[in-house]
Amino acid sequence: MMNAQSLEVPAMIAKRHDKLGLTDHDVVKMYHFMLKTRGLDDRMWLLNRAGKVPFVVSCKGQEAAQIGAAFALNPVRDYVLPYYRDLGVVLVFGQTAKDVMLSAFAKQEDPNSGGRQMPGHFGSREHHIVTGSSPVSTQIPHAVGIALAARMKGHNLVAYTSFGEGSSNQGDFHEAANFAGVHRLPVVFFCENNKYAISVPLRKELACEHVSDRAVGYGFPGVTVDGNDPLAVYAAMKEAVARALDGQGPSLVEAMMDRMNPHSSDDDDRTYRSKDELEEVKSHDPILSFRDYLLDCGVLTEASEKALREEVTVEINVATTYAEKAPYPHPEQALRYVFAE
Amino acid sequence: MTVKLYIDSIHDALQEEMRRDDGVFVVGEDVGVRGGVFRVTQGLIEEFGEARVIDAPLAESAIVGVAIGAAAYGLKPVAEIQFADFILPAVNQLISEAAKMRYRSNNDWSCPLVVRAPYGGGVHGALYHSQSLEALFHHVPGLKIVMPATAADAKGLLLSAIRDPDPVLYFEHKALYRWIKDEVPEGEYTVPIGKARCVLEGDDITVITYGLMVHHATEAARELEKEGISTELIDLRTVAPLDSEAILAAVRKTGKVLIVHEDNKTGGVGAEVSAIIAEKALFDLDAPISRLCGPDIPAMPFNPPQERFYMLNSEKIAQAMRQLAAF
Ligand SMILES: Cc1ncc(C[n+]2csc(CCOP(=O)(O)OP(=O)(O)O)c2C)c(N)n1
Ligand SMILES: [Mg+2]
Fold this sequence. Notes:
The complex is a heterodimer. By secondary structure, chain A is α/β, with parallel strands linked by helices. Chain A contains twelve helices and seven strands. Chain A has helices at residues 16-19, 24-49, 63-71, 87-92, 97-104, 139-153, 171-182, 202-205, 230-245, 275-283, 286-296, 302-325, and strands spanning 79-81, 159-164, 187-193, 196-197, 200-201, 222-226, 251-256. Chain B has two domains: 2-184, 3-Layer(aba) Sandwich (Rossmann fold), CATH 3.40.50.970; 197-326, Rossmann fold. The model of chain B has no long low-confidence stretch (mean pLDDT 98). Chains A and B meet through helix 6 and helix 7 of A and helix 3, helix 4 and helix 5 of B. The complex binds thiamine diphosphate (TPP) and magnesium ion. Thiamine diphosphate binds next to strand 2 and strand 4 of chain A.
């Protein structure tokens, strides 16, 4: 197991991202994506509470892990099979704020599904995002199939797939991990461990300490990292990606984090999480800690950070207005694309 | 034309298509070195290698799920489920995933997948090696289901299934493997999915069936011919989507219809065929629609008397045909 380094950066220390081969520009971009992910998430939640969007699922608290993971991938080369919370990943792979809002409002132009699926059900061939569904873990064998097919075609790429720790109990996770292990396929299994499966806490989900402990059963390495630290996630993912591209087979990366919102807009987490716990979670918001890091090492200033936030807000405002006004699909279009036409 | 066994026809069609198209590959349990437990994929690993003839770990959801991923990437997987009975662990992948990939992505992604599965009883397979499971999938939009009865259709439908841009379930009857042989066209030969075949032309009664029962019904019709009853016999070949036009035309011709299938009756394919007839051709009927199907018990027993009790045969079918003709 790999432990994340502490994020507390003494004033004059060397930039940790240098050692990872990330430029100042890269980490600002990462932060920008984290802000955009959070901004969209907050906005969708708000729209739900305002009665404008019937259902949303939040990634609040998981942005650092998602952006750290996605930055270790190559959107031109690799394929992602994200689970419903992986908003940060699909943004890095090319979806825009407008795309996200079109999906939230279920409009015709939604690139994921033309308004057919709920938000959080990503898909876009153009951006190498494989279409996903609601039953958890079904995407995991698909990632293995993508990796298998790519190898048969002589394409060197990585298939990334993500899932919650609760979903690592599904047969599809185990069957797919075993298949990938046996065939040494270039898959990165990314577990976003937010310590809850809806209301069920970690201790009732797993008898082993870490989800990453499961990897050994399938003949490949598993690591657990601090998911509140995008650089720690990036480092672990980078290693997994290098192994995959080098023909060494799959890896499992587990990122530890907190779910800062209820499971979904229909859930009330006060029925199973204490006030203290919910307060505590707020105190390690990964966006705040990464901002502090960037300020401490002088990559951002208070002013440039504020400018980034404002840029993101404007983009989200424009996207929201556009999506709200955009047309719904025609009812009879529901009959189309059962089969090829 | 060459006369071939049904099983050899499946094997040869698969081999021909793998030679023609590099994107076609086989994945399943024991399909490689062993050549499949029924030997359908015999020799393929020698010709095409381990990369295209994959002995998968024993996990059906992964066999189908991995094949779905490969299909999404643009290959043409032919996944084998060793016995149709064991497709159940993969049902989530088939219904939640394969059947919906095109629809849920608004035509952005697709799943050109074939799943082959040996089905059917009368082979001493007992409860879990005898089932017909087409009705479970028949209800699901987004899946096509073919069930060839002849060696020629076995080839023609397999090639069509592999070339189809959407997922196709290909159910092959175990009892037909080494029992049925007929003339199979050489080379390029496809049978369109969704088209029934008229096996026998007749004027008195219509029998609609598919799979193994086509042969028992043919025998029964020959028997009845001696008694002066002539039968229009339809082999559906594809059970999803059903060939409504062929069904209605055959029913209108005689005004009396018997639907036969090995699968149990309740909620079976025959129920949908009857509904189509009732909706569209009620006033062309001279007798109530009749169905002869497997009994509504969970599965087929192992002991011979009960297995025979479950299975339809030409005598049971002939009896039902006589009753219908006499109505
Ligand atoms: C097969 C299946 N069973 C149940 C559900 C309902 N469900 C949706 S998410 C969820 C919890 C998932 O927890 P986890 O995998 O830890 O992911 P998280 O939501 O915490 O990110 C459940 C039970 C589902 N979507 N699919
Ligand atoms: Mg969880």
